[in-house]
């Protein structure tokens, strides 16, 4: 039955397929990434609501039936939201590939967006999700860093906070505009490619529109700003800088260098990374804790060390390791330079804003 | 046609291989396309090999090694990250993870740390610094109600034996440990017959690993024994009204990982599986009868059924958490009533099929990182002595019938003593005897 050609005879050209070797013999994974569907697109929170409505009812199947069938087949699924994309993820016993291709395709091409599911499942889930994060000072500091570094687009809040009223119709029309073939990338592990291609040919992904009416605006970035948000609980202090993707490796080396100099210890959490997005990247160094004096001295010396560091390329091996660990191994071969420029940077404090130094005092 | 093609082109990517050297050293490896690969030195001595005066010593040895100057150098200059891990019966003393193409540095890191082991743990100030840090961390574990209730449930179940000691170690003993304690512990435990070299990922082949391991200077000696276990039905409670929820972990004594009944226990645990409550949008769709009942009646925030396996025993049960503190007695009562269903044979065929499929997915999936996968492989190699292939696991799970589960439940669950630990607002957690009575029922 799966071989019956129902509507198309070829894989849509605009859909990109990447197959990789897996880590398990019997388990396959299938990811459908919808590019440009993440929180950078649309108004604040819209993507989070859409992502959390995935895997509910479609015109073919109710959410209940999908869950029960997957349980019986030994499969699990999830919808993940990033700033760039919405990613439908599934892992399952390998013989069930056709079921999951069809299910994931239907999520994109035949969603029903039922009002009761929105009110009783999606909204409470999304608000609860935000509730678990809203007191996390590091999460808030990173949100603020994105907001001041990018304003719109990548600067949108990652999750729905409940402040804006968004209706089921907004979500439905948003889905129509971004669930399109040219946005879709499929990534699989432990799957035989010819089978995959066959199943995709016959899946409802073919029914998706090819091009979108939404035009992405160019991502702007802003540097040299400071933002301080008072909050109870732990304090996070961070400095960061929006950079072009061509400088990604250089700042990854800086982040690796800082990792060897500053380590988390009991009561102090240190984190430094370069977040890579489709259009820009964002470097940051953050420290979180309750001992403000210590936070001040760490952030001060981290900034000074970063400004005067030389021989960054000697951290290339460490940087390669860090990139592999975060699944960015495709970027390993890019060369980094020795020079970083932190004469201007963005500075964010969330927590005890009275006692943390201002950026011009560092 | 489809199945034939699947058959001919699929290949075994991740078959585990285990070898034993003449001096008793175990070598285990498993390929797989992990983001980073890892190689580690494991010992078959976790918290169970400790005593109440040196509790935490195995944790501390691993921590001191991964915080040593040598490890930091490897990290900064060669991109080899050294970590350690600890369980009840095994310890990951040195785990080196590395990116593709960096194999030789990882191997030399293991060699260097093994050769300089004695001088590293002789560094009094390093040991002292991490003894204090580890003791702070072990106190912090107590502030996570889930791991705390489970750890205390294990402690009360095996009270009086070394299996009761906390996995990470006791805060008040770790802080007092010195180089001398580490050395005397290692003198007994650091012998080839008690150690394994474990590697996961595509970077190091098994033969390469064997020849590397045979060059390591590891003293030979006889494998030290561990204290036998003893299960006692009992409970421990720490009522804490400052926590927002009530938490309890309840379990009964079941057979060890090497028993043929172990897989049966895993299937039984998967009948109700785990429950994420409002942390998953799909909670109300889940097929488990217990989760449906608890959702409909707002009786639970989170639960997890488990079948912990050790070399000679096991614990089967569940951890439950609820903000509905006044009705927590019902949460516990109906959970145990659903366990009764396993014994009286009223669990439906569909529920079993679901449990078996979900268990296949769980057991055949690899851990998210190569280091965690190494932990699993090291446990298999050191404690069980073998690692089932995927095909074996599938046939073992397929062999579990309703009849088998019913017999298993009647033997190990029906009217059996329980070990229980509760914390949070547990005013509605009934006394031991009331809950113990729920392990059976007056009607069949």
TrEMBL record, chain A:
Example of a GO MF term? metal ion binding
> SUPFAM superfamilies, alphabetically?
LuxS/MPP-like metallohydrolase (SSF63411)
Question: Gene3D superfamilies annotated for this entry?
Answer: Metalloenzyme, LuxS/M16 peptidase-like (3.30.830.10)
Answer yes or no on keyword Kinase: no
Name of one Pfam family that matches: Peptidase_M16
Q: Mainly localized where? A: mitochondrion
Query: What membrane topology is given?
Result: Peripheral membrane protein
Keywords of the record, alphabetical order, are: Electron transport, Membrane, Mitochondrion, Mitochondrion inner membrane, Respiratory chain, Transit peptide, Transport
Q: Does the keyword Transport apply?
A: yes
Top-rank taxon of the source lineage equals: Eukaryota
- GO cellular-component terms in the record? mitochondrial inner membrane
Please give the InterPro entries that the UniProt record associates with this protein: Metalloenz_LuxS/M16, MPP/UQCRC_Complex, Pept_M16_N
State where the protein is found: Mitochondrion inner membrane
Where does the Peptidase M16 N-terminal domain start and stop, copy by copy?
17-160
The UniProt entry's sequence similarity note says: Belongs to the peptidase M16 family. UQCRC2/QCR2 subfamily.
> What PANTHER family does its record include?
CYTOCHROME B-C1 COMPLEX SUBUNIT 2, MITOCHONDRIAL, METALLOPROTEASE
Q: Please give the name of this protein.
A: Cytochrome b-c1 complex subunit 2, mitochondrial
TrEMBL record, chain B:
Q: What are the protein's GO molecular function terms? A: metal ion binding; metalloendopeptidase activity
- Which Pfam families would you find in this protein's record? Peptidase_M16_C (PF05193)
Q: Which residues form the Peptidase M16 C-terminal domain?
A: 181-359
- List the GO terms this entry assigns under cellular component, sorted alphabetically: mitochondrion
Swiss-Prot/TrEMBL GO biological process terms? aerobic respiration; protein processing involved in protein targeting to mitochondrion
PANTHER family with a match to the protein in the record: CYTOCHROME B-C1 COMPLEX SUBUNIT 1, MITOCHONDRIAL (PTHR11851:SF126), METALLOPROTEASE (PTHR11851)
Instruction: Please report the name of this protein according to its UniProt entry.
Output: Peptidase M16 C-terminal domain-containing protein
InterPro entries in alphabetical order: Metalloenz_LuxS/M16, MPP/UQCRC_Complex, Peptidase_M16_C
Q: Which domain of life is it from?
A: Eukaryota
The record's annotation in SUPFAM superfamilies points to: LuxS/MPP-like metallohydrolase
């Amino acid at each position: 039955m799966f071989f019956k050609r129902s509507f198309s005879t070829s894989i849509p050209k605009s859909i990109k397929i990447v197959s990789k070797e897996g880590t398990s013999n019997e388990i396959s994974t299938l990811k459908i990434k919808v590019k440009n569907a993440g929180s950078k697109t649309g108004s604040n929170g819209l993507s989070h609501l859409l992502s959390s409505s995935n895997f509910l009812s479609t015109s073919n199947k109710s959410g209940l039936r999908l869950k029960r069938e997957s349980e019986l087949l030994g499969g699990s699924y999830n919808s993940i939201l990033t700033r760039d994309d919405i990613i439908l993820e599934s892992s399952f016993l390998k013989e069930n590939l056709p079921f999951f291709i069809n299910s994931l395709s239907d999520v994109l091409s035949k969603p029903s967006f039922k009002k009761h599911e929105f009110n009783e499942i999606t909204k409470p889930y999304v608000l609860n999700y935000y509730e678990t994060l809203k007191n996390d000072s590091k999460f808030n500091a990173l949100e603020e860093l994105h907001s001041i570094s990018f304003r719109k687009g990548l600067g949108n809040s990652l999750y729905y906070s409940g402040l804006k009223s968004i209706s089921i119709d907004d979500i439905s029309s948003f889905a129509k505009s971004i669930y399109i073939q040219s946005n879709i990338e499929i990534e699989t592990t432990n799957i035989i490619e010819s089978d995959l291609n066959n199943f995709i040919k016959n899946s409802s992904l073919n029914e998706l529109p090819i091009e979108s009416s939404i035009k992405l605006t160019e991502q702007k970035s802003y540097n040299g700003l400071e933002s301080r948000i008072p909050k109870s609980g732990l304090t996070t202090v961070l400095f960061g800088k929006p950079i072009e993707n061509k400088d990604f490796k250089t700042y990854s080396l800086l982040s690796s260098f800082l990792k060897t100099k500053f380590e988390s210890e009991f009561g102090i959490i240190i984190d430094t990374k370069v977040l890579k997005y489709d259009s820009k990247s964002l470097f940051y160094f953050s420290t979180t804790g309750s001992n403000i004096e210590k936070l001040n001295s760490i952030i001060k010396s981290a900034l000074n060390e970063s400004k005067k560091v030389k021989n960054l390329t000697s951290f290339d091996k460490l940087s390669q390791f860090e990139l592999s660990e975060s699944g960015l191994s495709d970027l390993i071969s890019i060369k980094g330079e020795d020079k970083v420029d932190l004469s201007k940077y963005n500075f964010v404090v969330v927590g005890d804003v009275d006692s943390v130094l201002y950026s011009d005092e560092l | 046609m489809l199945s034939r093609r699947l058959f001919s082109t699929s290949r075994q990517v991740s078959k585990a291989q285990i070898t034993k050297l003449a001096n008793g050293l175990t070598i285990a490896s498993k390929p797989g396309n992990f983001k980073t690969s890892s190689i580690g030195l494991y010992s078959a001595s976790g918290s169970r090999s400790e005593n109440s005066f040196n509790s935490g010593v195995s944790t501390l040895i691993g921590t001191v090694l991964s915080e040593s100057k040598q490890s930091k150098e490897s990290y900064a200059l060669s991109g080899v990250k050294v970590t350690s891990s600890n369980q009840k019966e095994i310890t990951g003393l040195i785990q080196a993870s590395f990116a593709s193409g960096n194999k030789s540095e990882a191997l030399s890191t293991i060699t260097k740390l093994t050769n300089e082991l004695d001088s590293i743990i002789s560094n009094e100030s390093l040991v002292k610094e991490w003894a204090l840090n580890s003791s702070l961390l072990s106190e912090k574990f107590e502030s996570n109600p889930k791991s705390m209730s489970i750890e205390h449930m294990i402690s009360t179940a095996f009270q009086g034996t070394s299996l009761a000691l906390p996995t990470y170690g006791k805060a008040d003993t770790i802080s007092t440990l010195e180089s001398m304690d580490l050395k005397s512990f290692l003198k007994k435990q650091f012998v080839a017959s008690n150690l394994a070299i474990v590697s996961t990922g595509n970077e190091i082949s098994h033969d390469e690993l064997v020849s590397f391991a045979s060059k390591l200077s590891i003293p030979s000696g006889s494998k030290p024994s561990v204290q036998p276990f003893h299960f006692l039905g009992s409970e421990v409670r720490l009522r804490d009204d400052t926590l927002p929820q009530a938490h309890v972990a309840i379990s009964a004594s079941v057979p060890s990982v090497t028993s043929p009944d172990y897989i049966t226990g895993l299937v039984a645990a998967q009948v109700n599986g785990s429950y994420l409550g409002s942390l998953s949008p799909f909670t109300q769709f889940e097929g488990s009868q217990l989760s449906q009942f608890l959702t409909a009646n707002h009786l639970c925030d989170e639960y997890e059924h488990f079948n912990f396996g050790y070399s000679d025993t096991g614990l089967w049960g569940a951890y439950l958490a609820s903000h509905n503190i006044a009705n927590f007695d019902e949460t516990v009562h109906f959970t145990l009533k659903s366990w009764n269903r396993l014994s009286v044979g009223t669990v439906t065929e569909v529920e079993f099929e679901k449990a078996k499929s979900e268990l296949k997915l769980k057991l055949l999936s690899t851990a998210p990182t190569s280091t965690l996968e190494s932990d699993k492989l090291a446990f298999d190699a050191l404690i069980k002595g073998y690692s089932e292939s995927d095909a074996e696991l599938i046939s073992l799970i397929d062999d579990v019938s309703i009849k088998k589960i019913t017999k298993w439940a009647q033997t190990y669950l029906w009217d059996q003593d329980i070990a229980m630990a509760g914390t949070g607002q547990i005013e509605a957690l009934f006394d031991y005897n009331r809950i113990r009575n729920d392990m059976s029922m007056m009607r069949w």
